[in-house]
Amino acid sequence: MATLPKTQISEPTVNRMLDAQARDQELKALLLAFLGYGLYLGKDAIVMDTIKIVLSTAVGAFGGYGYRAHKDRQKEDAEQ
Q1: Taking the complete model, does pTM exceed 0.70, yes or no?
Q2: Measured between alpha carbons, how far is 71 from 77 in angstroms, rounded to an integer?
Q3: Is 7 helix (H, G, I), strand (E, B) or coil?
Q4: How many whole angstroms from its chain centre is CA 60?
Q5: Mind listing the pLDDT tens digit for each residue in 9-63?
Protein backbone atom coordinates (compact mmCIF):
# COMPACT_ATOMS: atom_id res chain seq x y z
CA MET A 1 0.00 0.00 0.00
CA ALA A 2 1.38 3.38 -1.01
CA THR A 3 1.87 5.99 1.66
CA LEU A 4 0.84 9.57 1.24
CA PRO A 5 3.48 12.27 1.50
CA LYS A 6 3.60 14.02 4.84
CA THR A 7 2.38 17.59 4.87
CA GLN A 8 2.97 20.31 7.37
CA ILE A 9 -0.34 21.82 8.43
CA SER A 10 -0.39 23.91 11.54
CA GLU A 11 -2.87 23.26 14.31
CA PRO A 12 -4.66 26.62 13.88
CA THR A 13 -5.16 25.83 10.19
CA VAL A 14 -6.63 22.44 11.01
CA ASN A 15 -8.93 24.03 13.61
CA ARG A 16 -10.15 26.62 11.07
CA MET A 17 -10.82 23.86 8.54
CA LEU A 18 -12.80 21.84 11.09
CA ASP A 19 -14.76 24.92 12.18
CA ALA A 20 -15.65 25.66 8.55
CA GLN A 21 -16.86 22.09 8.05
CA ALA A 22 -18.98 22.30 11.21
CA ARG A 23 -20.55 25.58 10.01
CA ASP A 24 -21.26 24.04 6.61
CA GLN A 25 -23.01 21.08 8.24
CA GLU A 26 -25.10 23.42 10.40
CA LEU A 27 -26.16 25.43 7.35
CA LYS A 28 -27.09 22.28 5.46
CA ALA A 29 -29.16 21.05 8.39
CA LEU A 30 -30.90 24.43 8.67
CA LEU A 31 -31.67 24.48 4.94
CA LEU A 32 -33.06 20.94 5.05
CA ALA A 33 -35.17 21.81 8.09
CA PHE A 34 -36.52 24.90 6.30
CA LEU A 35 -37.36 22.88 3.20
CA GLY A 36 -38.95 20.11 5.25
CA TYR A 37 -41.06 22.60 7.19
CA GLY A 38 -42.13 24.24 3.94
CA LEU A 39 -43.23 20.88 2.56
CA TYR A 40 -45.05 20.11 5.82
CA LEU A 41 -46.99 23.37 5.50
CA GLY A 42 -47.79 22.66 1.86
CA LYS A 43 -45.72 25.58 0.56
CA ASP A 44 -44.33 23.68 -2.43
CA ALA A 45 -43.73 26.82 -4.50
CA ILE A 46 -41.47 28.36 -1.85
CA VAL A 47 -39.56 25.09 -1.53
CA MET A 48 -39.09 24.85 -5.30
CA ASP A 49 -37.94 28.47 -5.55
CA THR A 50 -35.46 27.93 -2.71
CA ILE A 51 -34.08 24.82 -4.42
CA LYS A 52 -33.75 26.74 -7.71
CA ILE A 53 -31.82 29.52 -6.00
CA VAL A 54 -29.46 27.12 -4.21
CA LEU A 55 -28.83 25.03 -7.33
CA SER A 56 -28.30 28.10 -9.52
CA THR A 57 -25.77 29.47 -7.07
CA ALA A 58 -23.94 26.15 -6.87
CA VAL A 59 -23.82 25.73 -10.65
CA GLY A 60 -22.58 29.30 -11.07
CA ALA A 61 -19.88 28.87 -8.44
CA PHE A 62 -18.59 25.56 -9.77
CA GLY A 63 -18.91 26.70 -13.38
CA GLY A 64 -16.94 29.86 -12.67
CA TYR A 65 -14.25 27.90 -10.87
CA GLY A 66 -13.99 25.43 -13.75
CA TYR A 67 -13.81 28.24 -16.31
CA ARG A 68 -11.03 29.97 -14.38
CA ALA A 69 -9.07 26.73 -13.96
CA HIS A 70 -9.41 26.00 -17.69
CA LYS A 71 -8.23 29.51 -18.63
CA ASP A 72 -5.25 29.27 -16.28
CA ARG A 73 -4.31 25.88 -17.71
CA GLN A 74 -4.48 27.27 -21.26
CA LYS A 75 -2.32 30.22 -20.26
CA GLU A 76 0.30 27.92 -18.69
CA ASP A 77 0.33 25.71 -21.80
CA ALA A 78 0.80 28.75 -24.06
CA GLU A 79 3.76 29.97 -21.99
CA GLN A 80 5.60 26.65 -22.34
Answers
A1: no
A2: 10
A3: coil
A4: 11
A5: 888 998 999 999 999 999 999 999 999 999 999 999 999 999 999 999 988 888 8
Residues composing the chain: 80
Contact 47, 35 (CB under 8 A): yes
28 neighbors 44 (Cβ within 8 angstroms): no
CA distance readout (Å), 45 to 39, 54, 55, 62, 64:
9, 14, 15, 26, 28
Sequence letter at residue 55: L
Angstrom CA distances, 75 to 10, 44, 64, 72, stand at 32, 46, 16, 5
Phi, psi of 43, rounded to the nearest 5 degrees: -95, 65
